[in-house]
Amino acid sequence: MSQPSPALIQYAREHRDPRNIALHCWGVPMVWMGLAWILVERMNPMPWALLLTGSLLQALGHVYEGRRPTQGLAGWLMAPLFVGLQGLNGLGWGHGRWAALELQAGPRRMRDLAL
Fold first, then answer.
1. What is the pLDDT of residue 89?
2. What is the dihedral of CA 63, 65, 67, 69, to 10 degrees?
3. How many structural domains compose the chain?
4. Does the pLDDT value for residue 1 go beyond 70?
5. What's the rounded Cα separation, in Å, for the pair 115 and 112?
6. Distances 85 to 5, 6, 47, 106 between C-alpha atoms, Å
7. Would 111 be classed as within a structural domain?
């Protein structure tokens, strides 16, 4: 079983609330699709809407998580890797790497927002 990178493990440790993970699974691809689309068509408002909506979904996820988003290049690079690896696991591929990541990141937990 291959081991995930330390940066990916740290990213996973900062994303343990299932609501945050679900919102990132939608938000991260939206941001990256929006960025790619902006490179092609800058004047079209649709990619900007994708970028904004994806960013807002991730921000909401971090409200559930109770921590600030990962800053810098590491966060921008780890987010699609984390979401992609989770997607591959859901499709039946990469179980060993996903299991190793989950084991090292620790248990998932839902933060009580009432506190």
1. 94
2. -80
3. 1
4. no
5. 6
6. 12, 15, 25, 17
7. no
The string of pLDDT tens digits covering residues 77-98 is 999 999 999 999 999 999 999 9
pTM, two decimal places: 0.90
Supply the mean pLDDT for the chain.
92
Cα 47 from Cα 104, distance rounded (Å): 36
CA distance 60 to 7: 23
CA-to-CA dists, residue 35 to 42, 48, 52, 58, 76, angstroms: 10, 8, 10, 15, 12
Kindly state whether residue 17 falls inside one of the protein's structural domains.
Answer: yes
Tens digit of each residue's pLDDT (9 = 90 or more) over 39-75: 998 889 999 999 999 999 999 999 999 998 877 888 8
Q: Is residue 15 one of the residues assigned to a domain?
A: yes
For 91, which DSSP code? T
How far is the C-alpha of 114 from the C-alpha of 108, rounded, in Å? 18
Residue with tokens 């179980």: 95
